[in-house]
Amino acid sequence: MLPTDPTKKLSFKRNISDGDLVIVYEKHDNMKAVKVCEKSVLENRFGIFKHADWIGKPYGCKVSSHKGGFVYLLAPTPELWTLVLSHRTQILYIADISFVVMYLELIPGCVVLESGTGSGSLTTSLSRAIAPTGHVHTFDFHEQRAAAAREDFERTGLSSLVTVGVRDIQGEGFPKDLTGLADAVFLDLPQPWLAIGSAGEMLKPDGVLCSFSPCIEQVQRSSETLASNFTDIRTFEVLLRTYEVREGKMDHCQTEGGTPGSRPCKRKHRTSEGSQWEQEHSGSSIVMARPSGEAKGHTGYLTFARLRCVA
């Protein structure tokens, strides 16, 4: 997320300054977060890049090295930060994150409670959804992990939107001073049913809870606990399938109705008219689409529930 411009609500800084965090894009599977320092340089296989040359340029620009190689300088959005952050724990990725943000009904000004913080992947997206007037209170029982997350939020300009606490939510529950203040609660815990009672106390009337669990047995036990004070209990498994779309050559078999990647076919006798058509189109380029070999399978289950309003 880019630092917000205080003079314009919901507008973002577009040019790179000394001290900013940028995402250096080399290729789709090779990116890194770099803090801009006027006297520093970046060295990689494409050459040497002076940070001083980046200052003043817009995010998204292409910059060249001393030997002609180039990289792109991208803004540290939550989507890109999820791909480059240090993995202190298993993280949620874009498919699950987008689903969570939508079903928690987050808008600017919302207050969100999260446990546990982990690597901060989801927290970054939550903070953008509730900015500039909302707040995320995130908790992790591991002190070093919480400290590392706090440093990351400072690097990405989110420290004013996120408060990181060290607390065992399963054993102690959420802090009592947050009772009745939360619009939404997110749980990523090994035994989420132990925290559901406390989460219900934190939520405003009609507030929404989400629990992420990798195993269906955790979902079943959580749902049993939710049934006492929550309604509209639903569980989803988000499966993402990506496709590669590329330009390729079409051979004579594909002109007869074959598909890219199909087995070779026998030649058929052709009329002179058919032979002329094949000569004109054989080897021509077509656009081919196929499932990506990097497609991810199961990550976990997302269980949502709404706090029951008591008359």
Automatic annotation (TrEMBL):
It is found in: Nucleus. Gene3D superfamilies: 3.10.330.20, Vaccinia Virus protein VP39. The keyword Transcription regulation does not apply. GO terms for cellular component: nucleus; tRNA (m1A) methyltransferase complex. Its EC number is 2.1.1.220. It is an enzyme of class 2 (transferase). InterPro entries: SAM-dependent_MTases_sf, TRM61_C, tRNA_MeTrfase_Gcd14. Its main location: nucleus. It catalyses: adenosine(58) in tRNA + S-adenosyl-L-methionine = N(1)-methyladenosine(58) in tRNA + S-adenosyl-L-homocysteine + H(+). One of its GO terms (biological process) is tRNA methylation. S-adenosyl-L-methionine binds at S119, G120, S121, L122, D140, D168, D188. One of its GO terms (molecular function) is tRNA (adenine(58)-N1)-methyltransferase activity. Residues 251-284 are annotated as: Disordered. Residues 273-284 have a biased composition (Polar residues). Pfam families: GCD14. Residues 69-306 form the tRNA (adenine(58)-N(1))-methyltransferase catalytic subunit TRM61 C-terminal domain. Keywords: Methyltransferase, Nucleus, S-adenosyl-L-methionine, Transferase, tRNA processing. Belongs to the class I-like SAM-binding methyltransferase superfamily. TRM61 family. PANTHER family: TRNA (ADENINE(58)-N(1))-METHYLTRANSFERASE, TRNA (ADENINE(58)-N(1))-METHYLTRANSFERASE CATALYTIC SUBUNIT TRMT61A. This is tRNA (adenine(58)-N(1))-methyltransferase. It comes from Cynara cardunculus var. scolymus (Globe artichoke).
